[in-house]
């Protein structure tokens, strides 16, 4: 039984073939394609099976890869979990160690603060001791300078103190060093009393007093000696040689020495007895000795007062026309001028800086 496709029948119905083409010996196109159309579903089924098999193989490979990746991921997750636990343990250990280190650091910081405070207190105590030693040295040097009458002890003490401050290298002692430098410059420029010279002058006055000619005393005559010095001959030789002019000159000088005329302001001076005159000399010596002792003791005002009283006694009792009295008065005036110009310097700035540092302790 043969199946006639409906399309062919319709076509035959619509367009009948010509009579000459109808027959078994002339196969048509449809007849030739009919076997292929019959095999098409089979081919499609085979192709579908092949595609399904390929997909199934591919899915198998994908499943194997996914299973392998899943196993790898699970292994990595387990390893990551183990590492995480290890890291957590290490973090806890590190936290504990950090806490312990922080505690020790705090303890060390507290100990360091205590050590710093101790060092600061020791350093401050050392600085305070240095300040006290410098103060004592400067005061002792000033007293020694007042006793000796020279500024050298103060200059030496200031130099030594500056060297000690420089070696100590303490910043808060820098103003003290600067004050000492200014004091040293001022002391070097100050004119001080030359004690040996003044004492020598007072000793000279003391030696001159015993040979002073008081008012009312006869002046020593040196006219004859001077005449002999001029002539170099005795009176007899002058007469024999006829040197009458020189001889008369010597006689005149001798006569003048017998009569002395002087102006006395007080009549009481002429009425003094020899003992009273000697007492006046003793008073002069006492005033000179007191002035000398006051100069040595650096009592300048007292020394000036003694010399003033000595000058009054000299003007009252001594004949000021003699060369010895004039020389003595010039020496006394020189001593008075030296005492008046004398100013013993003081380390005022250094002591002020020391007081400031000691008050800031």
3D structure, described in words:
By secondary structure, this protein is mainly alpha-helical. Among the domains are: 123-191 and 348-359; 195-219 and 273-341, de novo design (two linked rop proteins) (Up-down Bundle), CATH 1.20.1440. The radius of gyration is 70 Å and the shape is rod-shaped. Helix 2 (29-148) runs antiparallel to helix 3, helix 4 (174-189) packs antiparallel against helix 13 (348-359) and helix 6 (223-231) runs antiparallel to helix 8 (244-258). It has 13 helices and no strands.
Instruction: Give the number of helices.
Output: 13
Q: Report the portion of residues in β strands.
A: under 5%
Backbone CA Rg: 70 Å
Give the topology string: H per helix, E per strand: HHHHHHHHHHHHH
Helical percent range?
A: over 70%
What is the SS-derived class? mainly alpha
CATH architecture of the domain at 195-219 and 273-341: Up-down Bundle
Find the CATH topology of the domain at 195-219 and 273-341.
Answer: de novo design (two linked rop proteins)
Give unreliable regions as ranges. Answer: 1-25, 221-233
Overall CATH class of the domain at 195-219 and 273-341: Mainly Alpha
Rounded mean pLDDT is: 76
How far is it from the N-terminal to the C-terminal residue, by CA?
139 Å
Biggest sheet layout: none
Q: Which geometry do the CA atoms define? A: rod-shaped
How many DSSP-defined strands?
A: 0
Helices and strands in order:
Blueprint lengths: L5 H9 L14 H120 L3 H17 L5 H16 L5 H15 L13 H9 L3 H7 L2 H15 L8 H4 L3 H23 L3 H18 L5 H19 L6 H12 L2
Helix pairs in contact: 2-3, 2-13, 3-4, 4-13, 5-10, 5-12, 6-8, 10-11, 11-12
């Amino acid at each position: 039984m043969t199946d006639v496709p409906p399309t062919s029948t319709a076509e035959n119905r619509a367009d009948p073939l010509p009579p000459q083409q109808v027959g078994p010996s002339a196969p048509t196109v449809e007849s030739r394609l009919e076997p292929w159309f019959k095999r098409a579903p089979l081919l499609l089924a085979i192709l579908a099976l092949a595609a399904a098999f390929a997909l199934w193989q591919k899915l198998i490979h994908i499943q194997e890869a996914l299973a392998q990746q899943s196993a790898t991921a699970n292994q990595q997750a387990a390893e990551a979990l183990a590492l995480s636990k290890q890291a957590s343990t290490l973090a806890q250990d590190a936290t504990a160690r950090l806490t312990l280190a922080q505690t020790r650091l705090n303890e060390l910081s507290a100990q360091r603060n205590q050590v710093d405070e101790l060092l600061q207190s020791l350093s401050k105590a050392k600085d305070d001791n240095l300040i006290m030693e410098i103060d004592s040295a400067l005061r002792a040097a000033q007293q020694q300078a007042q006793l000796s009458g020279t500024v050298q002890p103060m200059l030496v003490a200031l130099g030594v103190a500056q060297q000690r401050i420089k070696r100590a290298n303490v910043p808060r002692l820098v103003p003290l060093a600067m004050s000492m430098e200014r004091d040293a410059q001022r002391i070097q420029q100050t004119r001080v009393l030359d004690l040996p010279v003044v004492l020598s002058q007072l000793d000279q006055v003391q030696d001159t007093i015993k040979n002073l000619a008081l008012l009312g005393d006869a002046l020593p005559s040196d006219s004859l000696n001077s005449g002999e010095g001029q002539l170099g001959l005795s009176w007899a030789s002058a007469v024999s040689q006829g040197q009458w002019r020189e001889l008369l000159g010597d006689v005149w000088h001798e006569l003048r020495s017998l009569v002395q005329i002087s102006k006395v302001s007080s009549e009481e001076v002429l009425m003094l007895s020899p003992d009273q005159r000697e007492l006046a000399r003793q008073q002069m010596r006492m005033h000179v000795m007191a002035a000398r002792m006051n100069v040595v003791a650096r009592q300048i005002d007292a020394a000036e007062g003694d010399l003033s009283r000595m000058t009054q006694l000299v003007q009252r009792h001594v004949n000021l026309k003699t060369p010895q009295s004039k020389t003595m008065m010039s020496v006394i005036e020189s001593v008075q001028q030296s005492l008046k110009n004398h100013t013993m310097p003081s380390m005022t700035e250094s002591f002020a800086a020391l007081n400031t540092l000691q008050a800031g302790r």
